[in-house]
Amino acid sequence: MNRLADIESGAGPFPTVKNAVDGASKGASETMPAEVLAAWEKLQEVATELRSVIRGKDDVVELVLTALLAEGSILLEDVPGVGKTTLAKSVALLIDMEYQRIQCTPDLLPGDILGGSIYRPAVGEFEFRPGPVFCNLLVADEINRASPRTQSALLEAMAETQVTIEGQRYDLKHPFIVIATQNPAGFEGTFPLPESQLDRFLFRLKMDYPDPVSEVDLLVEQSEHEPVRDLKAVMHVDELEILQRWTRSIRVDRKVASYIVALATATRHDGRLRVGCSPRGCKMLLRAAQAHAGLSGRDYVLPDDVQHLATATLGHRVSSRHASHAMDETGQVIASIVSQTEIPLGG
């Protein structure tokens, strides 16, 4: 018997995500240490401000904040003009993080991202000049317009929070998060991201067009000024780190971990997929579920957290037999697997 119906109705061993979110403020005040609660309330302010700028995209805002708590990088993919860069810029402004932005083009070099040594004739020696990667939040606009060689320059940074330049290892700031935007494959002048780099992103999200009402609101409100210009920091990076540490301690029942493995196993045996979810993918889904629980004000993970995040976390970590990086196709396969996979009862 599929246990999803029991969980959704509240009859199973876990409460529902919806109920937990509805009572988030009350639950958070009862379970969080004081400094965590203060930081969590600031994050709710960040969410409110983001929703005021990115109209009709509450689901995307939620996932972006979840990724921040999980210390994960985000790939925003869609056609030009739907708000990808605006969202990334707004996050950088609302959280008082040191950030840099790079516009990716075919002639962008690895050194333009990482930095390098510059000879100073006055002192007769080389001096290291750090590149934009030395920040808390790196916004990489149109990352798939950069050459594969330049794209790979970010790989070590995203995987290990460090870079190697001219044989010397340099640690990056903590936290270090990349928000990259890209246009769909097939657009002129784009280079598909390699699978090894796609795997470094916690989520791949699609912005999509706003609904008609939200688009009208957007036009009316932005006819006189850009809302992004009015944004001010409401949260400090130290407060974000407090929340990140707290989310790592959020409880994960063995049943939930078993459910994640069951989903991954299903992807590995699904005939529609060429490559299934790796153990790293399982780890990332678990980490994302902890962060989503924390964003909801809970100190425990629900199976619904896993269901809610499965497509965004696993969709770019599996490959379709028909189109390796077809975002919609792999997402549909993951959604199908989620709907058909039972929640294990063993503990």
Automatic annotation (TrEMBL):
UniProt KW keywords: Hydrolase
InterPro entries, sorted: ATPase_AAA-3, CbbQ/NirQ/NorQ/GpvN, ChlI/MoxR_AAA_lid, P-loop_NTPase
Alphabetical list of Gene3D superfamilies matching this protein: Magnesium chelatase subunit I, C-Terminal domain, P-loop containing nucleotide triphosphate hydrolases
Broad enzyme group: hydrolase
Keyword Transcription recorded: no
Residues annotated as domain ChlI/MoxR AAA lid: 266-334
Keyword check for Hydrolase: yes
Molecular function via GO: ATP binding; ATP hydrolysis activity
Domain ATPase AAA-3 residue range list: 74-203
EC numbers: 3.6.3.-
Protein name, UniProt field: MoxR-like ATPase
